Fold:
Amino acid sequence: MTQSLTIRRPDDWHLHLRDGAMLAAVLPETARHFARAIIMPNLVPPVVTGAQAAAYRDRIMDAMPEGADFTPLMTLYLTEDTDPADVAAAHASGLITSVKLYPAGATTNSASGVKNFDKVRPVLERMAEIGCPLCVHGEVTDREIDIFDREAVFIDRVLDPIRRATPGLRVVMEHITTKNGVDYVATAPEDLGATITVQHLMFDRNDMLVGGMRPHYYCLPILKRREHRDALVAAATSGDKRYFLGTDSAPHPTHAKEAECCAAGCFTAPIALSCLAHVFEEADALDKLEGFTSLYGPAFYRLPVNDDTITLTKGDPLEIPKTLPAGDHTVTVFDPGVPLHWRVQG
Ligand SMILES: NC(=O)N[C@@H](CC(=O)O)C(=O)O
Ligand SMILES: [Zn+2]
Ligand SMILES: [Zn+2]
Structure:
């Protein structure tokens, strides 16, 4: 008997498309299944101003495959010099959907991020007034804080103080990876949401490190202990509207992943929905998949849900290409290491 599941078309609330040849290589993989995605602004140089976001959106539209029906939701990269008026104008015109906060040095291309959080207070206050959400990469960067503790420490030292100082600011904790993140969101009112990635729902740090180091499993925030993964799966499959899908699909050329110093990021876009159906089925929660992928994100962002649907069917294991060509390079598709039986029809 074929098992099938029809859900409203999903959106991806955290996605890296990059630029140039990489953009052209990876955009079809998301546009095939998703209707919209929040496009991360951590290009080199970053997308800081409204004018830069408009130009980047044009480049994405130019790279769009024939016949695709996909809307990029643009973001601005917050710096200590960001002009509140520029943010307000870009938001009012519908050009941007949110602003992204990277602590300086926390992750890929975050060097222009924020060092002194007091300096961005005027922008955050303006965003609270106009209802523009803030997306946050939630990790401290202090050398003395262990990399596995950086999310938990960020919540106490940075995020909670920012939220208390800026009432009305709507915040998305991007790619939460710990029970601490889950618990913090659970205590907050509905002005706080969280995205969860595919790899953090499927894997823990043993999967990355035991028996040899797997560079394609390395992303930031780094995979954590098993108990944290269990907390993320429980949150994602709970039906609680505050947790929704942000794949954080983050392509790097294969040579930059399989390198002496491996770049952080997992390219999951081609298999994201197959992996999620696998995870939700294992948790006996397939009935909760649609909320996570297609309903709760729009609710947080105050956008309509998509009109059309997709159908997932269960059958023979999916054949996943190992790499995709990307200009002069390749990009390696994230390999979950288990057979995936769910595929998106059409
Ligand atoms: N998640 C990652 O490991 N990498 C992302 C950046 C980010 O989302 O932190 C990237 O841009 O490659
Ligand atoms: Zn991040
Ligand atoms: Zn990301």
